[in-house]
């Protein structure tokens, strides 16, 4: 199998600057050298490769967008290209870095006190500390505003009660960014591992993101110092700001998974001989699948690059990000299926990365805002009518403002 | 200690090469380029020596505009500044003409040590470093897999045949040509990549190096590529199929009955 050298049908490379290309190529080489040789084993065993954390830190991949504490302060495209290359390795690996950077370091840096920043940003950047983000609960996924976790002020302490689920990095974490309801609305808190009343345990039986740690967090009269509140958080919108950062990365990450599947299928199709020694790449039906993949990946790249431009200009809105996350993860999901078809029986074994990506992408399709909820975000943007809550949609329908159901499925 | 590292940007080893229209070189359109692998070890060695001794690493290349990317990468990994001989006059040079240009840079910079790879992955003559040392009148070691620098001299371990190594002590300044096994090149960090933008890349013309354009590039070369071609497929080549045990059995059988060498 030839080494991955990128998917660049539209000759986009010259539009990247030298640093962006070098950053991408560095992370690409790291993934090829250090991740690909071990990732299938991690997937089989259901373990996160903790041994690569110091190397990820040495590359400055944690908190790479932060321009402070000696961190690189990367612009949108460079950050996106990192996510693309990491997810080309594995969605679980990208998830770990996404959570550390966008969901832990970003909120501490953006909403934290000076003391919180000084304590945690260097520790998280160096990989000495891993962090997690607790928003989703067993009964509240797409509707986080309904959360039941509470934080009650008691003298010099906050008392947390509740449970969080589907938490990436949970049991690995030294610190959890936890969102809880207070008398003044939803606020963010820092809960350190080892705090009495705070428990975490891994979720088992996953068929997806097996190389990533997914946990449940429990809070039972968990008392944390009053200073552990993130002082600049005002409500759910702050949690959604974090997710916007992470989802932006996923719009790029999805392309990475799609590229790996496409590359694998293309190389396979050129080498697999059938029907009198002809490569299956000579078959029209196989070409059609490859053409679909490279076309959708190319369109996804344009979408991601535009999100990057908007981000760098400070004009990126959540509904832009929704289109990027929704489309590009869907492209990855479809590419994984088509690549699996091209690989035939070989597509179902982990000698090839395709089935692993196919399984992983089912999680990515659903977490960080499901495909369908992002569809509703876009729907609200174009119609002005929020349809998340069916009765509201019914009311709107009565006013003859019905949205045409648009399916972007093939 | 001031260390010069001579690097070359070569076609990526994964690139699919085709002869160019003239037939005298390969078609460079649409192929990826990378730092020559041997030179990656030279960069790493120089940076780690500089880290230990507090020296400066200057990376030097002869090559067109695209070669700047190779210099940027070396700077991102930790080299302090770069010299780029990009002038049209340097183009098409053989080892001799290239060594002459590099020698002029070495004289101008007064390096204490020059590191480079033992050979390039494209033409693979393995002579540029040797010529450079001889033009400078410096000692020289080739195929080096170990290097220790102390007090004006260097202990070098050279790889010999049959798994044996040779340990030499040579005086500095010297040209040391390294190869795989001497170290593990590090990855550039993102911070390193961002800092590389602000590091100096000096473009020097032949005049800057007090050389006549006729001494460098194609004009100063003693060797000319007449043609390059894809090797013809060997007649009678057979590809054995099956698992390792089956293939081994078939191979022994063929060596015995067809080739009659066993």
Topology (SSEs and partners):
The complex is a heterodimer of chains A (410) and B (262).
Chain A: H1 18-45, H2 53-58, H3 76-89, H4 91-111, H5 114-125, E1 131-134, E2 150-154, E3 157-168, E4 175-182, E5 185-192, E6 198-202, E7 214-225, H6 236-271, E8 273-274, E9 278-279, H7 284-312, H8 318-343, H9 354-366, H10 371-383, H11 390-398
Parallel strand pairs in A: 1-4
Antiparallel strand pairs in A: 2-3, 3-7, 4-5, 6-7, 8-9
Helix pairs in contact in A: 1-3, 3-4, 3-6, 4-5, 4-6, 6-7, 6-8, 6-9, 7-8, 8-9, 8-10
Chain B: E1 2-7, E2 9-11, E3 33-35, H1 37-53, E4 56-62, H2 68-77, E5 81-85, H3 95-109, E6 113-117, H4 128-136, E7 140-150, E8 153-159, E9 165-171, E10 174-178, H5 190-196, E11 201-203, H6 244-257
Parallel strand pairs in B: 1-4, 1-6, 4-5, 5-11, 6-10, 7-10
Antiparallel strand pairs in B: 2-3, 7-8, 8-9
Helix pairs in contact in B: 2-5, 3-4
The number of helical runs of chain A is: 11
Radius of gyration of chain A: 22 Å
Which superfamily, in CATH terms, is the homologous superfamily of the largest domain in chain A?
Answer: Butyryl-CoA Dehydrogenase, subunit A, domain 3
Q: In CATH, what is the class of the largest domain in chain B?
A: Alpha Beta
What's the number of extended β-strand segments of chain A?
Answer: 9
Element string of chain A (H = helix, E = strand): HHHHHEEEEEEEHEEHHHHH
Strand order, biggest sheet of chain B? 9-8-7-10-6-1-4-5-11
What class would the helix/strand composition of chain B place it in? alpha/beta
Name the helicity range of chain B.
25-40%
Helix content of chain A: 40-55%
Number of domains of chain A: 3
Round the Cα radius of gyration of chain B to an integer and report it: 21 Å
What this model shows, in words?
- The complex is a heterodimer of chains A (410) and B (262).
- Chain A has 410 residues and is of the alpha+beta class.
- Chain A is 50% helix and 14% strand.
- In chain A, α1 (18-45) runs parallel beside α3 (76-89) and α3 packs antiparallel against α4 (91-111).
- Chain B contains 6 helices and 11 strands.
- Chain B has helices spanning 37-53, 68-77, 95-109, 128-136, 190-196, 244-257, and strands at 2-7, 9-11, 33-35, 56-62, 81-85, 113-117, 140-150, 153-159, 165-171, 174-178, 201-203.
- The longest helix of chain B has 17 residues, at 37-53.
- The A-B interface holds A 2-3, 5, 18-19, 21-23, 26, 29-30, 55, 58-61, 64, 70-74, 78, 82 and B 12, 14, 32, 68-69, 72-73, 76, 187-191, 193-194, 196-197.
């Amino acid at each position: 199998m030839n080494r991955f050298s990128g998917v660049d049908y539209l000759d986009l490379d010259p539009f990247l600057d030298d640093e962006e290309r070098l950053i991408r190529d560095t992370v690409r080489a790291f993934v090829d050298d250090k991740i690909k040789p071990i990732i299938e084993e991690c997937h089989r065993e259901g373990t996160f490769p903790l041994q690569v954390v110091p190397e990820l830190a040495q590359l400055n991949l944690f908190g790479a967008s932060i321009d402070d504490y000696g961190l690189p302060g990367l612009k949108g495209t460079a950050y996106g290209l990192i996510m693309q290359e990491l997810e080309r390795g594995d969605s679980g690996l990208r998830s770990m870095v996404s959570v550390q950077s966008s969901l832990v370091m970003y909120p501490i840096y953006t909403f934290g006190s000076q003391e919180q920043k000084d304590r945690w940003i260097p520790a998280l950047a160096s990989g000495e500390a891993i962090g997690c983000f607790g928003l989703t609960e067993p009964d509240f996924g797409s509707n986080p505003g309904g959360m039941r976790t509470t934080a009650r002020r008691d003298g010099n302490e906050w008392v947390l009660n509740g449970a969080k689920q589907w938490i990436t990095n949970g049991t690995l974490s030294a610190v959890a960014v936890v969102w809880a309801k207070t008398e003044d609305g939803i606020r963010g808190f820092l809960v350190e591992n080892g705090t009495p009343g705070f428990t975490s345990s891994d979720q088992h039986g996953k068929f997806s993101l097996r190389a990533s740690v997914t946990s449940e967090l429990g809070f039972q009269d968990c008392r944390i110092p009053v200073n552990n509140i993130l002082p600049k958080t005002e409500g759910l919108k702050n949690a959604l700001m974090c997710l916007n950062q992470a989802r932006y990365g996923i719009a790029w990450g999805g392309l990475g998974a799609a590229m790996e599947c496409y590359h694998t299928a293309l190389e396979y199709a050129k080498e697999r001989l059938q029907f009198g020694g002809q490569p299956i790449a000579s078959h029209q039906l196989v070409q059609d699948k490859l053409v679909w993949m490279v076309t959708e990946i190319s369109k996804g790249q344009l979408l991601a690059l535009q999100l990057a431009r908007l981000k760098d200009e400070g004009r990126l809105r959540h509904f832009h990000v929704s289109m990027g996350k929704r489309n590009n993860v869907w492209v990855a999901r479809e590419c994984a299926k088509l690549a699996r078809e091209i690989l035939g029986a070989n597509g179902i074994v982990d000698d090839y990365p395709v089935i692993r990506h196919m399984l992983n992408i089912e999680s990515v399709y659903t977490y960080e805002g499901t495909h369908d909820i992002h569809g509703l975000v876009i729907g609200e943007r174009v119609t002005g009518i929020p349809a998340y809550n069916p009765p509201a949609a019914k009311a709107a329908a009565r006013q003859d403002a019905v949205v045409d159901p648009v399916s972007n499925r093939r | 200690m001031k260390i010069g590292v001579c690097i070359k940007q070569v076609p990526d080893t994964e690139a699919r090469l085709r002869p160019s229209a003239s037939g005298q070189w390969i078609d460079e359109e649409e192929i990826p380029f990378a730092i020559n692998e041997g030179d990656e070890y030279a960069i790493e060695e120089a940076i780690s020596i500089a880290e230990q001794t507090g020296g400066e690493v200057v990376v030097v290349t002869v090559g067109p505009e695209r070669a700047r990317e190779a210099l940027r990468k070396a700077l991102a990994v930790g080299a302090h500044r770069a010299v780029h001989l990009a002038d049209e006059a340097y183009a098409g040079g053989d080892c001799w003409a290239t060594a002459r240009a590099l020698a002029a840079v070495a004289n101008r910079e007064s390096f204490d040590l020059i590191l480079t790879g033992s050979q390039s992955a494209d033409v693979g003559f393995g002579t540029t470093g040797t010529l450079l040392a001889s033009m400078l009148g410096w000692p020289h070691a080739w195929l080096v897999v170990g290097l220790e620098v102390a007090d004006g001299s260097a202990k070098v371990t050279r790889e010999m045949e049959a798994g044996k190594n040779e340990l030499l002590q040579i005086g500095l300044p010297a040209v040391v040509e390294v190869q795989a096994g001497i170290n593990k090149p590090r990855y550039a960090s993102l911070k390193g990549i961002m800092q590389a933008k602000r590091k100096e890349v000096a473009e020097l013309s032949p005049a800057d190096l007090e050389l006549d354009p006729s001494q460098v590039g194609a004009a100063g070369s003693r060797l000319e590529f007449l043609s390059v071609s894809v090797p013809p497929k060997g007649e009678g080549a057979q590809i054995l199929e099956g698992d390792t045990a089956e293939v081994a059995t078939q191979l022994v059988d063929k060596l015995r009955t067809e080739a009659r060498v066993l």
